[in-house]
Amino acid sequence: MHKVLVLRAPGINCDGEAAAAMELAGAETALVHINRLADGSVRLADYAMLLIPGGFAYGDHLGAGRMLAVDLIHRLSEDLHTFVADGRPVLGICNGFQVLVKTGLLPDHAVGRATLIDNASAHYECRWTRLAANPASPCIFTAGMDEPFDLPVGHGEGRFLADEATLERLAANQQIVVQYIDASGLPTDQYPANPNGAARAIAGICNRAGNVFGLMPHPDRAFLPQQHPQWRRRGLDQAGPGMAMFNNAVKAMKRI
Question: What total number of domains does the chain contain?
Fold first, then answer.
């Protein structure tokens, strides 16, 4: 059985559904508080995958994801970098994506090269969005996701921004994994199809190796067919649109 560590911290509130999705995909999960990792009672190295769920870690008091990121950097930096270097999958969803960016694990150990800030709409966005995955991306989580799909968002600070050189590098390395698209299927910077005003319509990015992936939309809120508001009309009888990412994660763990 491939074990997934689902990280918990004060304010994280999507750990249950993230664990349920991974278990449906065939993994064994453990919901572990960051303090247990920090005190050594649980070892990150004993797990095949790390999942940082969504929520409002530490109440977002110092900015979305920042305080949990600081916690990880100062208490678990060496373990994290070894985990990533070993090629083990790391998934950060919504607040988890913010954490990965603030730690510098995305993009590629470069703290300060990118950020996630307040939505351009200046209010919380909570609805379904249309997305497309980059078929040329090395991301292990989106392999085979060749058709547009829907996932819900629920965030107030989801606007991905970076300097132009970083954006160009992400594009050249195919690290822009998932983008918000319009009705014609093209990436868009127009609201409301792009719910937060993200640069280059970025909804998610990965590291160069493809084993670290962060995205703002929630596959964990769309892994069951019944979670989609048009599941009957769309013919989603077997799985929700987010389930493919969790299935891909299990396939990747089997290859390690």
Answer: 1
